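TASK: fixed-backbone design
INPUT:
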């Protein structure tokens, strides 16, 4: 039963700061951009123009990075006096404009390095050479000098000078001799386990998210292993030239010479004068060189800020992408200090040899990686944060990809943890979950995202409407600050679309055709980000990440649905072991992270190893009242304290788990809490079992899902004091009606519209045993905030709302889609096309009705290097359709198949009186819980009025199109026979005069009127009779014209911005001197398809009658 709340509002909803700041968000809530400069292409006027354009469009901050990709070098050398003056100018201009400015930690888009990093301070590996000898004999010879390993990205980035330094640098570390094992047993994947290799991108198929620490190892005979007691340290006997004199004992011996060499990793992709080695990550002295050579110079040049909200406020450490190091001069001492044993006798393990036993060697490698992680955190990123704070700055960190540490552990250093999600290209959705988890468990209020990054194929086709659904997904996944990738710096003022970052990123630049309209979208984002930065996220489940490094946190697949992944009704986070150790407490049975989120259940990884320190912390949490789900560990993964550490683990596990075996006994009480475990299947390289087992525990605890709906709705929930803030968004490109269930009681629901800033009481809802149920209408990819605040007055709910005896509010049924034929590849070329019917049908069966076409390459690329097209023949509820899209397109199989418009709404006016807003005539009935019934008759509602006939279309001068044309009917400009119109890119102004003559009866009725523009490609600004009615940037392209519409003659003007490809495609056929556009990136041919353009309509006036309830 749907109930309708009679809310009697005595005062305006804007009478509080939360509402006021939602309407006009503070600067801290505004989106950011990546502000990329191309190698030496900087100028003062361009910088000022860029920043002023950001300010005008509602951008709150810019991350400054200079790179070298796809553009010839400019005249201003990186770090030259002129370059430093220009960067200081940019920072001061940002200060003047109240735009925040973040400085990248080094040249290029990742890392901390440059030409000031000398070999001794660069990233290093331990390498070794082996010499086999037979004794008894005197060995007197020069040992082979170990050679450096190939740089992870090859030698292509090494200049001749850098290559020579890479080849020449070598420092002896140790010389060891040991009896040669009889077998040839090697440790599997030792290059990965010893941090010689880190996969370039964690999202690539086959990349291990973590390195499991098993409890069972293969058993080798003593003769197959190097015995630690047999290892002889000959380091002091090695001469500076590498000569060794040693009396070899009887038998077969191996002599290994170990030394430090450079990894060869350079700054990437740095401007040419900024090319140099990456700084070492284990020693603070290496980062001191970065401070002295780069960051401190710029801080000194920039000087202090004058505006507290603008100018240089942050240092930024972008995605890792530097592979890994495993050694430094201080590493042996640090290892001994942190692990309580000497690494010397275990150095042969780094070459794959087994020392002691397979288990002993693997435990040593675990300790080596753990030490490397701690040094990266303490002496590099942590030290960078200390430096930032000492200089009045904060630090943002994007901790994913090729990181030799745990992503969650590295990211917890950041003041602002940051992730990345791609509009076209890599699937890095896991990094969004990671960054949100870091913020929620570490008490950080901002989760930033490198947003909408794109591989080749975007080509100026993205715009706010195409990004909205993915952006709303990111909000629901935990992001609350977008940093668009990218805003390309434009030296000079006039060339358009101008300089590009090669083929990468969405083109979020001041030279965009729609830039003067994009502020409306940015305002939507700012309103969303303001509310999503308030309070703390509500989540029920905390997944404890496995100990050890490297590590990428991925929740169990059963905890999410769809692509990109949405969490279900129970939200969750991941937690680094270090964060649990340092911050977790128990309060009222919840696992609490001060200043962050609290959780009902802590889920342990399905690993049977754990350090005594961590298990002791879990014991303390359970004793204090926590509920912990997962299996008992059986041993430690470390060699530290071995074998006593294993005995400690077993004693603690028996105490905590008791007789709980996950098969017949599923729970064991301990202290005020309990441990629960149900054995489920765990996929290879997964950390957790079936999420249903966890939700079953929550159900038995009496905890209902935080949110549920009968439609395709995603959500996130934050708690700000006594206010619950839900953001709910439609996943589909069609309008739907859905009943949404919220786990809230005793509070009044309100609708907060982030597109308009409008706040209104929710009249229609029902109280349920687990919360509040609200029927909501969502437009295509629509979204809204449902905010619950303490109830102000007693209510008398209305229990039904009917029209002509039938319910007005009916949920949209999921469509039945049958994919009859689907091909992906080069149209007309069977050899470069594959059948994807089964893949699309599988998605449809799961309720996923849209996809980014390019993601189909994950199932096999039928035409590598060619632009591919998806063509689908299908039915929706037996109605036939055909759809197609290219790789860069997002294709929806349900676009345009929307729920009917509601016949009427019930709302309250400013005085709290109820009224019906009816778009259809009929007899409406409202029944209250008290038994009172109200009826109202809506006799006549005017039919929609289509504005037909000829339109005037004006174009900017000197841009290829005529100044003015007349079109008999609306349609895409690309259908024009005039080449200047067909290839037009920019803003065209449509003008129309029309008569509106309502009947006398209609004139006397209270009504509201809406102008529906139909199909707009791609954004529009509307004026009626001189009244500015704002910008529309997504479907439905509709504005309220009630205050502007008048009886008689009306004048309508619609400015419509389209996309750059149209003019760029037209220019391909023109000589260079006659072209209207210029860009450093030209992806089109004369035969490239033209995107639809302009105002396509139909343009319609829709009227609703407003009837007060008696």
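OUTPUT:
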């Amino acid at each position: 039963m749907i109930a309708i709340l009679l809310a009697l509002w005595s005062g305006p909803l804007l009478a509080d700061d939360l509402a006021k700041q939602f309407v006009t968000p503070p600067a801290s809530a505004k989106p950011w951009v990546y502000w990329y400069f191309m190698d030496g292409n900087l100028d003062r006027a361009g910088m000022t123009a860029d920043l002023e354009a950001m300010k005008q469009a509602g951008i709150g901050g810019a991350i400054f990075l200079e790179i070298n990709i796809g553009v010839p070098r400019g005249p201003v050398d990186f770090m030259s006096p002129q370059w430093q003056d220009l960067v200081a100018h940019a920072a001061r201009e940002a200060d003047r404009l109240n735009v925040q400015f973040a400085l990248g930690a080094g040249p290029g888009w990742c890392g901390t390095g440059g030409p000031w990093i000398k070999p001794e301070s660069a990233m290093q590996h331990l390498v070794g050479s082996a010499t086999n000898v037979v004794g008894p004999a005197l060995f007197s010879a020069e040992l082979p000098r170990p050679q450096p390993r190939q740089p992870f990205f090859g030698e292509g980035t090494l200049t001749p000078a850098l290559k020579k330094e890479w080849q020449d640098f070598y420092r002896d570390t140790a010389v060891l001799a040991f009896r040669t094992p009889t077998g040839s047993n090697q440790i599997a994947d030792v290059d990965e386990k010893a941090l010689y290799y880190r996969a370039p991108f964690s999202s690539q198929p086959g990349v291990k998210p973590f390195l499991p620490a098993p409890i069972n190892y293969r058993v080798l005979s003593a003769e197959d292993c190097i015995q630690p007691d047999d290892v002889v340290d000959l380091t002091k006997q090695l001469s500076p030239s590498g000569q060794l004199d040693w009396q070899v004992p009887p038998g077969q011996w191996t002599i290994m010479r170990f030394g430090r060499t450079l990894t060869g990793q350079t700054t990437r992709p740095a401007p040419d004068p900024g090319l140099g080695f990456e700084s070492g990550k284990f020693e603070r002295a290496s980062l001191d060189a970065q401070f002295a050579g780069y960051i401190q110079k710029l801080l000194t040049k920039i000087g202090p800020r004058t505006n507290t909200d603008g100018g240089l406020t942050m240092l930024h450490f972008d995605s890792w992408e530097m592979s890994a190091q495993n050694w430094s001069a201080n590493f042996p001492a640090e290892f001994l200090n942190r692990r309580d044993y000497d690494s010397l006798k275990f150095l042969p393990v780094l070459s794959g040899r087994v020392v002691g036993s397979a288990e002993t060697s693997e435990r040593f490698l675990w300790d080596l990686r753990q030490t490397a992680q701690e040094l990266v955190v303490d002496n590099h990123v942590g030290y960078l944060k200390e430096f930032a704070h000492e200089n009045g700055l904060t630090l943002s960190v994007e901790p994913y990809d090729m990181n030799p540490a745990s992503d969650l552990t590295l990211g917890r250093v950041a003041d602002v943890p940051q992730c990345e999600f791609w509009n076209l290209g890599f699937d890095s959705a896991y990094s969004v979950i990671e960054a949100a988890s870091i913020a929620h468990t570490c008490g950080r209020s901002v989760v930033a995202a490198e947003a909408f990054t794109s591989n080749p194929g975007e080509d100026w086709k993205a715009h706010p409407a195409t990004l909205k659904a993915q952006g709303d997904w990111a909000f629901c996944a935990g992001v609350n600050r977008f940093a668009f990738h990218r805003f390309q710096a434009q030296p000079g003022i006039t060339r358009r679309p101008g300089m590009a970052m090669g083929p990468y990123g969405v083109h979020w630049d001041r030279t965009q055709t729609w830039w003067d309209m994009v502020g409306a979208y940015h305002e939507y984002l700012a309103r969303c980000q303001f509310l999503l930065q308030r309070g703390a996220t509500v989540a029920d489940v905390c997944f404890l990440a496995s100990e050890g490094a490297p590590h990428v946190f991925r929740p169990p697949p059963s905890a999410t649905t769809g692509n990109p992944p949405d969490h279900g009704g129970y939200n969750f986070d991941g937690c680094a072991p270090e964060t649990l150790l340092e911050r977790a407490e128990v309060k009222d049975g919840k696992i609490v992270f001060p200043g962050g989120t609290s959780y009902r259940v802590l889920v342990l990884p399905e690993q049977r190893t754990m350090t005594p320190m961590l298990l002791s912390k879990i014991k303390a949490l359970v004793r204090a009242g926590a509920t912990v789900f997962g299996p008992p560990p059986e041993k430690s993964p470390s060699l530290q304290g071995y074998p006593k550490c294993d005995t400690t683990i077993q004693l603690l596990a028996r105490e905590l788990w008791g007789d709980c075996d996950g098969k017949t006994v599923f729970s064991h009480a301990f202290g005020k809490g309990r441990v629960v475990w149900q054995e489920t299947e765990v996929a290879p390289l997964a950390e957790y079992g079936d999420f249903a087992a966890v939700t079953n525990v929550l159900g038995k605890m009496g905890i209902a899902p935080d949110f549920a709906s009968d439609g395709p709705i995603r959500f996130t929930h934050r708690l700000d004091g006594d206010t619950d803030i839900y953001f709910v968004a439609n996943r589909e490109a069609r309008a739907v009606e859905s009943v949404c269930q919220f786990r809230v009681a005793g509070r009044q629901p309100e609708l907060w519209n982030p597109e308009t800033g409008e706040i209104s009481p929710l009249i229609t809802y029902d109280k349920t045993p687990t919360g509040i149920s609200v029927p909501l209408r969502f437009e295509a990819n629509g979204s809204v905030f449902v905010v619950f605040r303490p109830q102000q007055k007693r209510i008398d709910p209305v229990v039904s709302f009917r029209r002509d005896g039938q319910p007005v509010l009916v949920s949209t049924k999921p469509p039945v889609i049958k994919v009859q034929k689907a091909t992906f590849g080069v149209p007309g070329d069977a050899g470069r096309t594959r059948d994807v019917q089964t893949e699309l049908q599988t998605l449809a069966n799961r309720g996923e009705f849209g996809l980014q076409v390019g993601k189909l390459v994950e199932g096999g690329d039928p035409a590598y290097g060619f632009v591919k097209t998806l063509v689908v023949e299908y039915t929706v509820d037996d109605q036939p359709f055909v759809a197609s899209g290219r790789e860069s397109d997002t294709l929806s199989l349900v676009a345009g198949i929307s729920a009917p418009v509601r016949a009427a709404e019930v709302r309250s006016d400013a005085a709290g009186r109820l009224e019906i807003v009816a778009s259809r005539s009929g007899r409406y009935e409202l029944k209250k819980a008290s038994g009172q019934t109200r009826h109202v008759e809506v006799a006549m509602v005017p039919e929609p009025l289509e504005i037909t006939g000829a339109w005037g279309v004006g174009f900017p001068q000197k841009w290829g199109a005529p100044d003015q044309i007349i079109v008999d009917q609306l349609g895409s400009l690309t259908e024009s026979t005039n080449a200047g119109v067909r290839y037009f890119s920019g803003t065209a102004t449509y003008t129309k005069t029309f008569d509106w003559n309502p009947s006398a009866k209609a004139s006397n009725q209270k009504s509201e009127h809406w102008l529906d523009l139909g199909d707009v490609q791609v954004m529009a600004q509307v004026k009626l009779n001189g009244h500015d009615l704002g910008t529309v940037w997504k479907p439905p392209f509709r504005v309220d014209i009630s205050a502007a519409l008048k009886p008689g003659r009306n004048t309508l003007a619609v400015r419509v911005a389209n996309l750059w490809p149209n003019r760029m495609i037209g220019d391909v056929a023109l000589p260079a001197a006659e072209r209207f556009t210029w860009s450093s990136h030209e992806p089109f041919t004369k035969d490239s398809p033209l995107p639809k353009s302009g105002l396509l309509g139909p343009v319609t006036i829709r009227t609703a009658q407003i009837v007060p309830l008696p």
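COMMENT: The radius of gyration is 32 Å.
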